[in-house]
Every structure is written in C-alpha cells, then in structure tokens.
Amino acid sequence: MIPAPFDYQRASSVDEAIELLRQHGEDAKLLAGGHSLLPLMKLRLAQPSVLVDIGRIADLSYVSETPADGRVLRIGALTRHHDLATSELVREQVPLLAHVASRIGDPQVRHRGTIGGSVVHGDPASDLPAALLALRATLVVRGPAGERSIPADEFFTGFLETAIAPDEVLTEIRVPAVPGVGWAFEKFNRRAQDWAIVGVAAVMTDGAGGPGVGLVNMGPQPMRAAGVEEALRAGASLGEAAARADEGTDPPTDLNGSAEYRRHLARVLVRRALETASG
Amino acid sequence: MSILGTRVVRVEDPRLLTGGGTYTADVRDPRLEGALHATFVRSAVAHGALRGVDVDEARRMPGVVDVVVGAEVDLPPVPGTVNRAMARPYLAVDRVRFVGEPVAVVLTERPEQGPDAAELVVVDVDPLPPVVGTDAALADETLLFPEVGTNLVAEAGAPDGATAPDGPAGCEVVVRQRMVNQRLAACPLEVRSSAAAWDGGRLVVWCSTQNAHGVHDALVRAYGLDPADVRVIAPDVGGGFGAKIGAHPEDLVLPWLARRVGRPVRWVETRTENMTAMVHGRAQVHEVTIGGRRDGTIEAYHLDIVQDAGAYPAMGAYLPRLTQAMAAGTYAVDRVTSRSRVVVTTTTPVASYRGAGRPEATAAIERAVDLFAAEVGLDPAEVRRRNLVPRFDEPHTTAAGATYDTGDYPAALERALAAAGYEELRAEQARRREAGDPIALGIGVSTYVEVTTGPYAGSEVGWVEVRPGGDAGVEVVVGTGASPHGQGLATALAMLVSHHTGLPHDAVRVVHGDTDLVAGGTGTFGSRSLQLGGSAVRGAAVEVVEQARRLAAEQLEAAADDVVLDPATGRFHVAGTPAVGRTWAEVLAAAGVPALRAEHTFTATQPTYPFGAHVAVVEVDTETGDVRLRRLVACDDAGRIVNPLLAEGQRHGGLAQGVAQALYEQVVFDDDGNPLTATFADYAVVSAAELPSFELVDMETPTFVNPLGAKGIGESGTIGSTPAVHNAVCDALAHLGVRHVDMPCTPERVWRAIRDATR
Question: Which of A16, B45, B358, B675 lies deepest, with the highest CB count within 10 Å?
Fold first, then answer.
C-alpha cells in the first residue's frame, strides 16, 4: 500500500495552485481531503507525478448566502462533508445537501473529505454529485483565463471525467436555496460505510425546471432521472413517474448488484423518494 | 470470595489501548539492526506455466540488495496436508496456481523501495485454464498437479449415504438441498508480518502467529536445525481467527533470504496481499439429505461435502473431517452418514477460520432441519424439541461418531426461545403476513454443539514462578504455551493464579509466545487456551502453593499437613490459628530461595463440546431484498466461566463474524480466477453499524474433562449465529414460496428469490 513516487507541492492560494497546474500539466493532481485520490494512489491505480496540495487554502472553506438576493447558497470547494452536514445555513436553506453530506462514508471520511474533491472526482457512486444535479447547482471554476460557471448538468461528462480543464481549480459550488421544499435522499447500501448500490436524491421544486431527481451509481457518471422529471412536469402520478427511473441509465454490474437489479432498485427508490419528498 | 467468575477488566487493555502494543512490525531489537525489507512479487495469473522471471531491471532500482526467484530457493517444499504429493514451493518454480502466489522476492534497504522494484520484475507465464469452483475441480479436465493425476486431494465417508435404502432416502419424508458454505477471509486487523535474524548459529524469528511453537517446528523441519537452535517469538498479535495458525510460506522463507544476504530480513504485507495470499476459510459445498416421519421425527441424515482447498492443500484439506465428525449436531438421529471430497482449485489456499469445519456442520444440519420442518408443516422450534439429544451428564456418542462430554440442548433451546419471546414473534409475523406488510419478519432458530481443543485430546503446558518484588512483596510470573492474541487470556490466567495463591491478580505477569520462555507449548486456536492452558497454569499454581506450604510448615514448626493457605490474605498459617502466619514474601525470605517455580502439563482425556441455541430476528424489505438483523439472542454454554466479561467479548466477536457470513461476507473469484474482493471496499467486513445489541443468555453446564469445568468459547458465537440468521432470512420469505437462499443473503439474491418464487 505504498504509492508510486510523486512530488508534493503545497499551494497557499488558488492562483498559486493554478500556476502549479500550468507548470506540471496533466501529470499533476490536486489534493484536497485526499479521500478519493489517496486510496487510488496506494493501490497504484492512480500515479500522478505531482500532487498539488490545496488542502490548507483556508478561504475556500465556507458557506454563505449571496448578498444580493440570498436565494443562492455559496459553498467553498474545500468545505468538508462534516461542516456541510452541520451547517445551520445549509440545513435551513438546502436540507437535502446537509443530509446527503451526513451519510457519506464514515466519520473519518466526513471530517477529511471535501465537497469540491467529491465533485471533481466525478465518481458516479458518490452521493453529492447526484444531489447537486437534483438541486441544479452551478460549479464555479477558475483557471489561467479567469473564472467560469458550469451548470451541474454539463459538469459530469463521463466515467471519472468532468468539464474542468487540467489547469482549472473548482472554487465554489452555488446551490439555489430551497427552504421548506420537500426533499428526500434514498441511499441503498449493505453496510453503513459503503457507497450506494443505488441512490436517489429528490427535491420537489416547483420552478421552471420542476422537481429535480438525481441518481447515484446508475451509469458511468452522475446523472439525473430525466424521464422521471419529465413525467412529473407533465403531471404524472408519483408512481407513473418512478416507473421511468431507469430511463436513459446505463447501470453497472458489479459485486453489489447486476444492472437489472439496479434498474429495479432505481424504480423502487425513486418512488419512495418522491413519496417522502411529497409527503 | 473467589475472584473466579467475576468481571475483572482486562489487564492487557491499558497498554494495548494506549498504543503501547508491540507488533512484529514494531519490534526494535539489536538482532534486527540493518534488516532488509522483503517485498514479494506475486502471480497476477491464476494458473500457468512459469516460463521465466526477469529480475534485471528490478535489480537496478534504488535500494535493491537482492532479487530472488523460486528456483534459487533450495529448501524442501512444504508437503501438502492430507495429500503430501501436492507440495507447495516457497516461491513458485515451474507453475503458478493462484493469483497472489509468491513468484519472486525483492530485498531492499528501505520498505518503500520494495514495491517500486517489484513492479519491474517481469513474470513470464503461459496461461493454463483456470480451475475455479468445486465442480470444475471435480471434472479433472485441467489438473493443478498433473503428476498426481487428479484434483482430488482426499475422499472420506459413505458415497452412497444419500441414496442407501436404510438412509434418509428410505424415509417417509425426504428433503434434499444443495447449499454453498461460502469462502471467507479472516481479516485480522494486523496483517501478516515476520522478521528473521541469524544470531551466530541460532535462528531467531519474530512472527505474527497464533502459535510460536508451530512456527518453530516448521522452521526446524524446513531448515533441518536442532530445535534448540531456533527461537520463535510472537509479540503482540492483532488477531488471527485461525488464519495465523502456524507459518505461511512467506514467513518460512525469510531465514533463507537472511542467510543468503547475510543480514536480517523483515516483512510486512499489504492489506491486498492479506486478502489474496493469506489462507481463506470455509469454502465447502454441501448437499444435505434429511429424512423422517410426518410427525416431525428425524430418522436419518446424510451430508455430502466438497471442500475447496484452494491451490495447495493446507489445513483446509483436513476441515471436512471435523465437519463430518460434527455432522449430527445436537440431534438424536439414529442414522447419520457423510462423505467428503477435497479438491484443489486455482485459488487462494484454504485453512482454518473461526470454527474451522464445525460451523459448516452446524450450518448444514440447521438448514436441513428447517427445510424438514417446512416440509412436514411444523414449527422449526418444535421439530428441534422433538429431536434434540436429551440432557446428558455422561458422554454421549453420536451416530456420526463423536463423543460429546456433557450437554443440555433442550434447556439451551428453551432459554433462548423464552428470552426471544418466540411465541410473540410468531404472532407478530402472522399479523404482518395477514396485513401484506412489505417488510417481512423472519425468525430463525439454531441449536449447535461444537468440538473444542481439536478432535483429539489436547494438552498444554504452563509454569508459575513466585519471586520477591512488586507491591505485594512478591510477584508472580506465569508462562503459558497458549498464545493469546486479543482474547484476554492473561487476565483469566492471572485470576486463576490469584485464586490459588491468594496473591492479587495484578501482581501476576503472563509471558507467552516465546519458545525460549515456554518450552513445548501448542498455541491458541480451536477454543483451547483457557481449558487446556488455564488447567496447566492452575496445576502449576497448585504445585507452587504446595512447595510454599511445606516451607511455611518448616518455618512455623508445624506438620506440613496442618498448614493452610488463606486465599483471602495470601498468608500461610496453622489451621485454626490464623493470627500466626507467614506471607509469601516471608516464606521466600526465610527459606533463602530466589523463587519458587513449578511447571505443569495438562492433558485432557477428550475434547469438550460447548453448545447453545440462538434466535435471530430479521426484517426483509420484500421490494428491495434488503435484510436487516433486528435481534440476536444467544444462549451459549461453555461450562464454567472464569470471567464473564472475557466470555462475553468472545461471544460478541463470534456473533458478529457469524452474522457476517449469513448476510455480508464472501470471497469472490471471477471465472479466470482473479480475486474480486481484494480490498475492504469490496469484501464486506461487518461493522457495529449493521449489528443490533446482542442479547446474551447465560448457561453453565460444567465438563468433567478438566479441573476448571470449562469448555471453549472462542468459536461458539460464530457457529450458532450463522444458521440462526440464515434460517431467519429464509423464514421471512417462506410465505412467498421461497424455500432457500444461499449465503451470504445479499439484497439481490433475496430479491431474485422472491421474484422467482412469486412470478
């Protein structure tokens, strides 16, 4: 369990991190909480030649409301899962997100892992990406050319692939506040610490996009249950909508479940999530 | 009042819980000065002809002192267990037989240099067809040992037991079921680790093992050394669960490497190596046939076993004998037959794991009894009532040939049922079924009996030495041939010594796991340590007390027979005149002896047979197949209990591992023989979050086999809980038409069973 040799550089600011990424190109990887990257490195499944440690950039760990209208929550990319789960502001304004963060891994993971790290890793088995899809969050990234915002829908592009460029740093996650809106998170796993075999994050927003439903582990990338959302917008019953949960998905077959079983689980769990969120 | 039977907290814990433990990797000893670090290069192919191993590039890596391949190791291979012809080389020579088999070893100055160099060793293998699963092995189409001519390691028992007219086949009701007792990994918190140094002509080895003496004997054999020239030390050991009995090939080859390079060598494996190259457990396929009458009387039972021994027959090749010996379980069945076949496959070798052969026997017959009960339409608890062996205080020999010492199975069953509130649970189950509740309630019952100390009469050695020192004026050092590694045996031994000497238990220091300090020990496995090791230490303590009593009598100018030891004060005095006496310190000082010492070997006349009954309650989400264990009631009888706290700890750990087999854990290989459960992300070790608070029911039926009246408790929890939980899952689904689900009862398996039964 010893990683391949690598260089270690510590960045004290986002600009310095961007500069280090520019210097080292695609061989460099950002290190935040390390709870996705380091296990892969120990198994030698990831062998970056340079680690750029951004874990100590203090001003990337925060939760605050946008001053202008207070309708969007701004979350620093280095905010740890535990802080997200226990933030009064998040619990009040986006309770789904706080709850999802509280169910990640185990206490050690939640005290080290960060929301930004989880998002840029792009793992379809992670819980936060699905929640951010359901919430229609926006990801703010900064690179040599400056800052840009990417809707969560456009962020996850493939298996462990995202729209972020090799020299960009995710700095902030912007989540529309949904106080008092019904929500639910169904995480189906065998053991408390496991990744979800299938997970469902649902929020019953009634704005332009209608309810949002995100799926965990139903394809190569985090995805939304598009068929379910469409059915709900069209006024279908919860049951009818849930029946379309696996539409457009491409679930994996692994030790924890076959694709067929995951499709079944998705339909059951989406129905339960919608019932809870509407209840 | 005696200290025995009280909840003395573990004397080991303050040190272990505050980071004071010294595990093999922590050992800092002058003899290990300048030690090189061994990194094994392992086969990535399950089966193949080994054409060559190119080590040139690896040799040029920083810190590399030597790289060794199998053909260079001129030690005799390790003979196969049961079938000696299937011998195992230390490093593969001309054939690889499982993924993870050592092929070469890299020696480096620093530990972190090893993996970088090992990556560059090129192993040239011509792949051969893998042999995965017992059916493939029995087909004998691809042979692991062509020179042997078959994959069959051994066969024992009655091949026609299932079909013979005087067996279950001739009964009014016959039920058959094939079931898999899946392969498990022991998952000790401390992975394997060894260190070897040549100290002049003497070999000193530190090893994370359950029995230093077993490693000692294996080294003596491998190296042809005089036993006195080998010292093995097992420092603190972080769990073994059977998988660390004796030495693995990696442990045994270290001294050879050390001799070759002229420097000490040490080794610590990774978790993935532990999951793929340390022995696994269980791995049997069963076909049970049970026969009886419609009134619920069981008349005959046949158990057919195919044991997957993995690539090389180790202890796993012997396990079915234990399973066969215990085939009858707790039941008074007149006709019990069994057959076992042991095969090699291109997978990790199999050996002991908590219970080793006995959990398999219990799992088989307890499922069979439930299937029989379902077939005749009777409550499974009722069928057990009608067929259990009644209470016995004299040895009882079963139709499978085992001779149980003492037991009261009906009482254990009734206590467990009462504690569980069995009738109310059945009523609740009926209510849910009536209401069509999608969360089904399942109630599982098991009764078990197991054999501890091994199938034959065991023995263990111990010594007790009382010498001046400490707060009490004397200190006691106790040596045991047992090799505790987490069980708390030192606490139990200190209590026994305190009881017999009258000295405080915290004045007792226990040494173990060092072949120089305790000659001729056997180790800790098979739930043997307290009953054998404790009886030996008790014997030594009694002898030391006798020595002191005779000295005290001289000093008190009394007849030896008139002097007694007051266990409450630890003083010797003439019977009836306690005011005039001698403390241990005074006896030693007056006698002018540096210490009093006695050694005692206790040999049992036969094994002991702890028993019990468990009741499990599960909830099954019939929409998803998710199973949650809600309650686990365990009545375990291990004879007299020296320390209930220690016994409960053993039961808790055992119950957790037993539940894990029923619901979570399974070692999986793909069709090519690649291990798919090589990390803790993929192998579902159970955690506290998945378990309810256990409901323990106490029962003590002493044995006559040893002076403590104690039986083993280390494996009981595992043995009883697996079938209880397994039966509970199947019971929860019975009303949906599901008859059986194999272990582990994963959500998908349960979902498929429901779907297949209801569509």
Answer: B358
Mutation site, A264, A269, A275, interface B, largest B CB count within 10 A: A264
Which ranges of B62-203 does DSSP label H, i.e. alpha helix?
Answer: 113-118, 134-139
Helix (H, G, I), strand (E, B) or coil at A89: helix
A239 min Cα distance to partner chain B (Å): 14
Query: Min CA distance, B270 vs chain A (Å)?
Result: 6
Cβ(A222)–Cβ(A214) below 8 Å: yes
What number of helices (H) and strands (E) belong to chain A? 12, 14
CB A144 within 8 A of CB A217: no
- Model-wide pTM > 0.90: yes
Kindly determine whether residue A265 and residue B624, on different chains, have CB atoms separated by under 8 Å.
yes
pLDDT in tens, chain A (279 residues): 789 999 999 999 999 999 999 999 888 999 999 999 999 999 999 999 999 999 999 899 999 977 656 689 999 999 999 999 999 999 999 999 999 999 999 999 999 999 999 999 999 999 999 999 999 999 999 999 999 999 999 999 999 999 999 999 999 999 999 999 999 999 999 999 999 999 999 999 987 789 999 999 999 999 999 999 999 999 999 999 999 999 999 999 999 999 999 999 999 999 999 999 998
Residue B122 tokens, joined: 């090129």
Q: What top-level class would CATH report for the domain B459-603? A: alpha beta
What lies within 8 Å, CB to CB, of B630 at 6+ separation is B617, B618, B619, B692
Looking at residue B471, its pLDDT comes to: 79
Q: Which residues of B touch A (CB under 8 A)?
A: 111-112, 114-116, 119, 270-272, 623-624, 626, 663-664, 668, 676-677, 679, 681-682, 684, 686-687, 689-690, 746-748, 751-752
Joined together, the tokens standing for residue B363 give: 């799992």
Q: Which fold has domain B354-452+608-758?
A: Aldehyde Oxidoreductase; domain 4 (3.30.365)
CB B281 within 8 A of CB B315: no
Q: Which residues pair with B167 in a beta bridge?
A: none
Query: Looking at the complex, does the CB of residue A197 fall below 8 Å from at least one CB of chain B?
Result: yes
Task: Give me the residues paired with residue A114 across strands.
Answer: A80
The per-residue pLDDT for B386 is 98
Q: Which helix (H) or strand (E) holds A230?
A: helix A226-233
For this complex, say whether ipTM is above 0.90.
Answer: yes
Cα three-residue angle B419-B422-B426, rounded to 5 degrees? 155
The closest alpha carbon to B716, from B664, B671, B666, B655, belongs to B655
**Residues of chain B positioned with their CB less than 8 A from the CB of A5:** 116
- Topology agreement, domain B354-452+608-758 and domain B459-603: yes
CB B492 within 8 A of CB B3: no
Q: What is the pLDDT of residues B168-225, one digit of tens each?
A: 999 999 999 999 999 999 999 999 999 999 998 999 999 999 999 999 999 999 999 9
Contact at CB, A268 and B271, closer than 8 angstroms: no
Rounded Cα distance between B678 and B278, Å, is: 11
Question: Dihedral of CA B345/B346/B352/B353: which sign?
Answer: negative
Check if the beta carbon of residue A11 is closer than 8 Å to that of residue A171. no
Q: B747 to chain A: which residues are within 8 Å by CB?
A: 188, 190, 197, 257, 261
| Domains contained in chain A, CATH given | 7-53 (3.30.43.10), 61-176 (3.30.465.10), 184-278 (3.30.390.50)
Domain ranges across chain B = 354-452+608-758, 459-603
